Amino acid sequence: MNLIRRAKEAVDIPIIGSLNGVSTGGWTDYAALMEEAGADAIELNVYYIPTNVDLKGSEIENIYVETLREVKGSVSVPVAMKLSPYFSSTANMAKRLIEEGANGLVLFNRFYQPDIDLEALEVVPRLVLSNSSELRLPLRWVAILYGRLQADLAITTGIHSSEDVLKALMAGAKVTMMASELLQNGIRRIKIILDEMKAWMDEHEYESVAQMIGSMSQQHCAEPAAFERANYMKMLASYRPLN
């Protein structure tokens, strides 16, 4: 909470508090403390990996919905839900969360996978930072959901360059989140990326960011099926061997 307080004192932009957790009780307590510390919004990151073979998919969905319901009841600031890409019906899950009161959706949670050390014969953590190719999954779903839900959408995986940000905005995201790029190359990258975006917008005669948001979403795309299975055969046909 001290970090939120210090950030609020240091900058004049909105500060969003984010923690990952599972239990509703823990989340409601922390969410209230975040708001008290000055957070302008809360990101709910339910980092939950279901390992119980008897736990049904509907029960997992209810964990997200119930957590959101509890947190919304404990704070007055906007609340965004960070989603996993592994729901059997992503669109319906998104709709349920919006109906429950989520002000925004963050796509997608990037679960870190363990590795095996063959020499020590131990399961070990192995941090692998994201890359731009990982943008495609959230890009696809933001483009599909844009205009169908009354909530803001954010992309949080694979944002590394000005091109990545522009693609995300055109798909329909109002927010792009960058972490791996800053860890690798430092916070100076933010200004570089913003300058590159401004140059691209000038060159292509865009007057504002609002003008491009959702312009390449499924609803506005000349070939909507490109975001669905119809793109599968074209993708395979596009392959060309190196030799």
Describe this structure in words.
The strands form two sheets. A six-stranded parallel β-sheet has the order 1-2-3-4-7-8. A two-stranded antiparallel sheet has the order 5-6. With 243 residues, it is an alpha/beta fold. The radius of gyration is 20 Å and the shape is globular. The chain is built from nine helices and eight strands.
Estimate the strand proportion.
5-15%
The second-level CATH architecture is: Alpha-Beta Barrel
User: Helix share of residues?
Assistant: 40-55%
Q: In order across it, which strands form the biggest sheet?
A: 1-2-3-4-7-8
Question: Could you give a short account of the major beta sheet?
Answer: 6 strands, parallel
Model regions low in confidence, pLDDT < 50 over at least 5 residues: none
The level-1 CATH class: Alpha Beta
Summarize this, please?
By secondary structure, the chain is an alpha/beta fold. It has 9 helices and 8 strands. Strand 7 (152-155), helix 6 and strand 8 (175-176) form a beta-alpha-beta unit.
